[in-house]
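Table 4 source record.
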Amino acid sequence: WVQQVHITDALLRLSQGEAVERIAERLGYKSASAFTSMFRSVLGKTPSQYGGLARRHIAADGMLQRAKKIG
């Protein structure tokens, strides 16, 4: 269950643009590479890959919400 908490916390932080190194440190990993290995084994993508996807999704959602207000 600890790993699930770490993944959940990391997903939130990545979507907010926090650096992988900082997330790994906050979660108690000895290195960013150790954290990345765990993350990839669970989700099939690296934290950097996920963070980029999440930020693009959030940006697209924000644009959609603004368009709905205008239209």
